[in-house]
Amino acid sequence: MTEPYDLITMGRIGVDIYPLQTGVPLARVDTFGKFLGGSATNVAVAAARLGRRTAVISRTGRDPFGDYIHQALREFGVDDRWVTPVDAYPTPVTFCEIFPPDDFPLYFYRRPKAPDLVIRPEELDQDAIRAARVFWITGTGLCEEPSRSATLAALAARAKSGPTVFDLDWRPMFWGGEGGASKDGGASGAAAMATARPYYEAALAHATVAVGNIDEAEVATGLRDPRACAEALLARGVELAVIKQGPKGVLAVHRDGRTAEVPPTPVEVVNGLGAGDSFGGSLCHGLLSGWDLEPMMRYANAAGAIVASRLACSSAMPTAAEVDAFLADR
Q: Which secondary structure element, helix H or strand E, spans residue 120, and what is its range?
């Protein structure tokens, strides 16, 4: 096996088709840009931009968009050896609308099934997963088989052999939410959350870090108070709980009693999508660097803010020099 990766992520991959006009509904948009996308993929790109050796475990369709994904990963310096084709399904695409500062509707085209949900347990390189300095999985990977079994198998093989991050990544439409199969009409869907919670709890038992916003933490814990959510996540097995609170900043609570509450970093928002993935890649960078909680959260907040001030996701991820300069100006 080659030298261990700094970070291996596992989960969603696809192509983002984003409007090049802001404040315009999709029905009236004339021009679009094509970008590498998918939360787990963006996290790997974000860490690579900070100088880390990263790889993604995922799958694409056997089509031109799949070819583009491999090309883009290589250009970003992310190893694509575990991104393999699925003949039966097309590479997913995602559209968004951009209404700054805080309205960015997403439209996922992932049917009849997304290839990244066809990751199979027997295809995993468990040695590489165990050896990675940080391993990252997402809640979306738990929503369907065989990805669910593969994600849990990867976590079991990892066996907390190093920092193992569970990105709570709640996408209710993948679980029958938003008034769909959940039949409860809520923005997230209480029935959808109830369906997801046992799988989230199973993943938390193998994770050392949990990161998510209040809605995502509610899926895992049934709670909405940030401090209570963090304590509940610690009780479910993780060592570090990171609760993102949007305009209220971020709360980090460690099992050893350390805490950090860091305010947000103000910017003029262009597109808030991807900011959380930039935060995640920077969080991994901080874990690898051995930083204490407060500087790690400040750095991750800054990296997220930079991406929020830009149009795209993957191609907007900042370098270490850009984050340092951004922090120095504040």
A: none
* Rounded-to-integer distance, Cα 99 and Cα 216, Å: 23
Q: How does DSSP classify residue 309?
A: T
User: Cα(270)–Cα(123) distance, rounded to whole angstroms?
Assistant: 39
- Confirm if 271 and 312 have CB atoms less than 8 A apart: yes
Q: What is the pTM of this model?
A: 0.95
Question: Which of 262, 260, 243, 281 is closest to 330 using CA atoms?
Answer: 262
Radius of gyration of the chain (CA): 18
Amino acid letter at 313? C
The amino acid present at 5, given as its one-letter code, is Y
Q: Which of 173, 252, 248, 172 is nearest to 210 (CA)?
A: 252
CA 321 to chain CA centroid, Å, is: 23
Q: Which tens digit of pLDDT belongs to each residue from 288-318?
A: 999 999 999 999 999 999 999 998 889 999 9
